Structure formats: structure tokens, C-alpha cells
Fold this protein.
Amino acid sequence: MHRIADAARRVTGGVDTHALVHMAAVVDQVGRALGSEEFAASAEGHTAALTWMRAYGELVKVGVEGTGSYGAGLARHLAAQGVEVVEVIRPNRQARRRRGKSDPADAVAAALAALNGEASGAPKAHDGAVESVRALRVARRGAVKASTQAANQLRDLIVTAPEQLRAKLSPLSSARRLALAARFRPGDLSDPCEATKAAMAAVARRHQQLQTEIERLDAALEILVERTAPQEFLAKQGVGLQVATTLLSPPSATTPNGSARRRASPPSAAPARWTPPPASSAATASTAAATGKPTPRSGGLSSCAWHTTRAPEPTSPDAPPRARPPRRSCAASSATSPARSTRRWSPTARPPLAGPISGAREAPWSAADLAALFDRNATSRTGFAPAEKHSLPRRSGCHPAVRT
């Protein structure tokens, strides 16, 4: 039962979104859960959820899970009503294991994440020309994938086709192969050759229809890009239609590149570091972030960088020849390069030794010189000369001969 004093307190909401119903929860400023309730995932349910949360006091903000999928409609409704909405990622696995997994617990966790500032990502507005570009890109991406699959299926059919079909289609290019297969008129399908022709014709015609669909989507995207993107951006080298649409449609807040949409941190906060956040419970496309695969936006940026670092234009025939650097003589090379020995290497030849063993002579080493060098190296490693090392007294019990 609500009291009159409850109307003045500040509360924070949290919503665990699903396909059919949403679970909402409310916490106060110290993190105490005030209540939880289930609402339908519809326009009426969104209005009822907002009214229910405001009944507990002044609603400061609402943390919503999956603002890019199941929670998109609720996030739009709350933003239209003047409520601050933040994107909440999937709860921590360790914390969820300690308190259990349930929809009310997830809703309370979303409210606490919005209260303590752990959730600070601003959800996408899902309006304007950018949202139109994103929707058309989804359709185009599916058409391109299906077109590639159709071309690969035709290639595989040619590999296993009867000899007369394989000999006719194998030498052709992909474009001529598709055009020829689309014109096939198969006869009796009980014949494997005619059945293969029917399959090839169906696959080739599907590819042609998908290509027509891709061209139609590209024309619509080009109109939207010209209206949205500045002309200076489109005039840059390496920025074509696909790169422009990739950079215009920002990724979700649950992907690494979504950090650009986060609100500015207070001046006293620590310097920001890039760390890939865990994937949202509803954002299945964030698997690329967990596997380390590049996101579409990074691909667009790398394409721009590659085109801007291309090789320079070829030199004009009228340009004077470039002066070649003078070739250095052997004497100049010897004067500027380290001294090189012209003698051939031999196993017994060694550079002159410094020290009392060999003096300054360059003669091949004798057996006595090698033994003396070995003794000196052994002394430098152990601190004892070989004779001293072997003459040291042994500990009692280390050798059978000295045991008592």
C-alpha cells in the first residue's frame, strides 16, 4: 500500500524484456526492491508499465535489457514520455548464479545497474533515415548471402552433372554459366540429365532474381545516403555506397564499437579503456564480439584506410626522369662498411685471443691452448679452477668411500 510520502521519493526502474511479456521492477535510491510486475509486450502493456513504475515515486531512469530487439518498442515509448532510458547488458554470471535465475531477479538487477551507473549506454533511437538504412541493409545482406549460395550450388551441380552438361558449362565464366543455365528447358525429368538441367535452371533463375533485388535495394540505399550523409564525406576516396551505409548505421551498444554512443563520463572518472563487454541476452549478433571477428563498422573503416593508402598515380610521360643516385665505388664501400675478412673459414682458425693464454698471435689453436681455454671458462662459471673443484673435501655420506 502506497503512502503519501512515497510520491516524493526518487525511484529507478528495470525491465527484463521478452518476446510476449516484460518483467518490470522498481528500486529506491539505496537499492531496496520495492516491487515487480509482469506486463504484455504491446503498446497497452508499455503504458501500463510506465504508470505502475511512476506510482512508486519520481521515476529517475529505467534500465532496459535488449533495447535493440525485444525491448525496442518499450525503449521508444519511454523515451517519448520523457523518461531516461539506459541499455543494460546481460547480468554477471557469477552474481546470477549466487542469487538464482528468474525474471523478477533479472528485472531488479537491471534497475540496480541503472542506479549505480554500471549501465550507461544510450539505446538507439530507431528513427530517422539511419533506421531506414539499417532495415534495408538487413534485406540486402540476406539477398547477397542467398545469391552467393545459389552460385555455389550451380557450381556443385556442374561438378557432378553428366558428361555432356559438364563439358558444356565447365569452360564458361560464372556470368555466362548462369545466363546459359537460366535458359534451359528440361524435358522428361526421369532422365538424370534432364533433371539436372531443371535444377540448374531453377538455381540460375533464383540467382538472377536475387541480383535484381540487390540492384533495387542499392538504388533505394543510394537515395537515402545522398539525403543523409554530407557531400564532403561521400566525395572522399574509398567511400562508396556500402562503406557509407556501414558507417551511417551504428552498431548495438553491446558490441565493442557501441562505446561511441555511451554518455560522457564525469570529469573525475578514470580514463576510459576499451574492454569488450559481454553479449546481451537478446543480441544474438554480438557473438562476433566474443569470437574476436571484426564488426561491419571496423570493416568500413579499414576499407577507407586501404583506399587512402593506395599507390600514387603513374608518372606522366612528359615528366623528366628521376635522377639515379651515384653508384659507390669499392673503395668508398670499404671505407664506410665494417672490415671484412677475405680468408676462408676453417674449423681450427680462430680470432686472436686476448689474455695470458695466447698473447697476440693468430696461429691456429693447439691442444694446450684449448685445454687452457676450457679451464678458464670453467673457472669463470663455477668460481673454482678445475683442480680446486675436484680437490674440495666431500660431505660425509655423499660418497660410499668416505662413509663411517
